[in-house]
Amino acid sequence: MTSLIALRNRAVGALGRVSMYRFVLVALAVLAVIAFVLTLSGELAGDPLALPVSLVVLVAAIALVDAIAQRMLGRTWRIESAAITALILLFVLRPTLEPSGLVGLGVAGVVASASKYVLAWRGRHIFNPAAVGATVLTVVSIPFPDLGASAWWVGSPALAVPVIVLGLLVLVRTEKVRVVALFLVVAIAVALVRTVVQYAQVSIPVDGTVIGQVLLSSPFLFLGAFMLSEPLTLPPRRRQQYVVAAVVGALAGWPILIGEISLGQERALLVGNLLAFFFAWRAAVRLRFVERTALTPSVRELTFRAHRGFRFRPGQYLELEVPHRRADARGTRREFSIVSAPAELPEVRIAIREGSQSSYKKALALVEPGRELPVTGVWGDFVLPARTDAKVLLVAAGIGVTPFVSQLREMRLAGERRDVVMVYVASEAEELAFRDDIVAAGIPVMVVTRDEPRELPAHWTWTGGARLEAATLAGLVPDLAERHAFISGPPRLIADLAPALAKARSLTTDAFAGY
Predict the structure, then answer these.
(1) Could you please report the per-residue DSSP string of 173-185?
(2) Positive or negative, the Cα torsion across 135, 141, 145, 146?
(3) What is the C-alpha to C-alpha distance for residues 480 and 482, in angstroms, rounded to an integer?
(4) What whole-number distance in Å separates Cα of residue 244 and Cα of residue 482?
(5) Are 499 and 3 in contact (CB under 8 A)?
(6) Which letter does DSSP use for residue 389 in this model?
């Protein structure tokens, strides 16, 4: 368990330096190159030239609609979104060189792109665009079969290993490994039961070869890693995501016939998307920027005013979009823990650390009071135990203190009393942000900084040392085994403290990979 925590957080830290969208795009592009090579070698059926030609048609159709829509909405056009949708459709639909088939691909691309703007709520698309495009083309193919339909040829055994490797990297980056694992377990189990039932009806025994075909010839791996894991079409809480994953797995594993259409992979995903929308239909809003306040030499607090309907729980995070030209590899969206408490709505506050030269940070620094910025959603399970008598340990490193500030503020405003201990790590004493909020909570705080603070409030203790290690943490919190541990900070620190934190009653992590 300890090694898994350390490995996961080191991986998150390494992969977090590239935006999620760029990372998914690269993974899909690599998979497309592998598929092209396998087609050239004869390992995959089909004309090798059909892959690049089909991809060009898909990208052109999707990019055209995206460019028009973004211009009408006054937003900066991003090629990454169009390319990701095109690559997914490339693996879901059948690549072709036939003119009618290429028209069908164009129709799927146009529908997929348009769905992001037509089938949307408060700036957030409801359905996976590729699934919408594939579904519409499949329906249209009933009267016009020459246009083609969804084929899910990515489920070939020859692509199983590349999909597993690249898909796992994507899931680590999006932190959806457990959610998609549940989907796979349900989908494969249901598919195996369906296979056994069907073979029994024709008196054919089910052997290892049949089971192997179900595992390696199904599109479940691709569906889970590259489509189900899309953050914008998942609900905010982990238990809600598990429900969606189980529903999609069951429907994908045993397709249901509705007339001439099979409720297969993409339609199963659309049902899951709709369920996720009902879980999170209030999450996407717009925030009006009010002011920025300097808290420490490097930390700034940004205050916004939310429109009606914005909801969150203390410890959750929002994804804030700052549209700007010439965005770097990290893109125009970032995730920020909410610093304010729900009781303080409609005021919403976040905090950032200055120093990064990313295009996003530069654009955010230029935002003027009164400007509205879109929030694509609120997510996270970094919330305190429901039982107020549960003993809690909070370990904060640098800007990672932000979700704890929201929790402590809500506790104070609600008059809630908990047994809470905090360990606060900062590079220097002057970088201890939100001191007043933490002091107001009246909890014991152990400070780890290189230099000794000149003055510390009551219940605060300087432990010395420039670095917090697992052995030190265990010594600072002797009753660690009785506490529910929450740690927020750089992935490397979380990995280093894993040996001590694994002894807690439970462990919840929130990794900050930087902006």
Answers:
(1) HHT-HHHHHHHHH
(2) negative
(3) 5
(4) 33
(5) no
(6) T
pLDDT(291) > 80: yes
Q: Give, in order, the Cα–Cα distances in Å from 512 to each of 34, 67, 280, 334, 493.
A: 33, 33, 24, 11, 10
Angle, CA of 108, 174 and 123, to the nearest 5°: 55
Q: For residue 5, is pLDDT > 60?
A: no
Per-residue pLDDT tens digits for 70-106 = 778 766 667 888 899 999 999 999 999 999 999 999 9
Residue environment code for 9-28, b if the CB has 16+ CB neighbours within 10 A, otherwise e: bbbbbebbebbbbbbbbebb
- 3-state helix, strand, coil split of the chain in percent (to 5) is 50, 15, 30
The two tokens of residue 415 are 């008059």
Domains and CATH numbers, the chain: 2-280 (1.10.3430), 285-379 (2.40.30.10), 392-511 (3.40.50.80)
Is residue 44 a contact partner of residue 159, using CB atoms and an 8 Å limit? yes
Structure tokens at 8: 């996961």
Amino acid in the structure at residue 446: M
**Environment class of residue 259 by beta-carbon count within 10 Å: exposed (0-12), middle (13-18) or buried (19+)?**
exposed
* First-last CA distance in the chain: 29
- pTM here? 0.79
CA distances from 209 to 59, 216, 332 (A): 38, 10, 47
Residue 16 reports pLDDT greater than 70: no
Position 468 pLDDT exceeds 90: no
DSSP, res 489: E
Element (H, E) at 353: strand 347-353
140 exposure class (CB count in 10 Å sphere: 0-12, 13-18, 19+): middle
Token couple for 106:
């164009």
